[in-house]
Amino acid sequence: MALVFVLLERQLSIETTPWKDMTMRWHLLNASVWLLGLAALQGCGSDSPMTPSPTNTPTINIVGQNGAQAFTPNPATFGGQQVVFKNNDSASHRIVLNDGSIDTGNIAPGATSPVVAMPPSGTYYHCSIHPGMIGSVTAATGGPPPPCTGSYCDGY
Fold first, then answer.
1. For residue 47, what are the contacts with CB-CB under 8 A and spacing of at least 6?
2. What are the Cα distances from residue 119, in Å, to 14, 72, 80, 141?
3. Between the CA atoms of 92, 95, 98 and 103, what dihedral angle is there, to the nearest 10 degrees?
4. Is the Cβ–Cβ distance between 84 and 60 less than 8 Å?
5. Where along the chain do its domains lie?
6. Residue 47, CB half-sphere, CA atoms under 13 Å: how many?
7. Which of 4, 65, 84, 104 has its CA 20 to 30 A from that of 54?
8. pTM of the predicted protein model
9. What are the tens digits of pLDDT across the range 39-48?
């Protein structure tokens, strides 16, 4: 970067007319701003991502409309962890925690949901498109999730 400044300064000293001198100073200022901006952007990079990548995040697979067998693993041992739902079925699904606190939105066949945080106490979830598809996540302590209540506790 210093070499650029030296070359531009040398060019300025060769040019003697006021118009060319002003133009070269403008180019020097413009180049300086660009170089400083690029240097600032280079310093903003990081080797570690801000959010976990879905490839490193535990995955609950959606395998089809099969009641309590619709998800694998089920129950999942991911209480207190961030997870993704991977749709391995040929139909779209929408996973919702029974308490309504998380809704993945529609997950197309072959797609993966956004990363969601499972409650440390464990939880139950279902597909809102196919309500007989049910699953659970055990508590972070290894114990079972809290008792399931509501209409989504029994699968097909």
1. none
2. 70, 18, 5, 11
3. -120
4. yes
5. 2-43, 54-137
6. 0
7. 65
8. 0.64
9. 544 544 434 3
